[in-house]
Write a structure and sequence with these properties.
Elements (H helix, E strand, L loop, with lengths): L7 H8 L3 H10 L6 E3 L3 E3 L2 H9 L12
Antiparallel strand pairs: 1-2
Length: 66
């Protein structure tokens, strides 16, 4: 992996979200994929964050996908 992994705070800032939102999404199995290192450290890869954003494209509030 050539890019550094981001902390929850860094990933949230990149997505324009609060840290707490990502924490809640993790507990619910929502949001971008993440890595859990050493049993406690949670990290996000930039390509995974970008893929999450790309997958969130909708044409209407009912969830229509273009």
């Amino acid at each position: 992996m050539t890019e550094p992994l981001l902390t929850t705070e860094q990933a949230a800032a990149r997505l324009g979200l609060g840290k707490h939102t990502l924490e809640i999404w993790r507990m619910r199995g929502q949001g971008p994929v993440f890595r859990k290192l050493g049993g406690r450290l949670v990290r996000y890869a930039v390509p995974d964050l970008d893929a999450f954003v790309a997958g969130a494209v909708r044409t209407n509030t009912g969830g229509g996908i273009p």
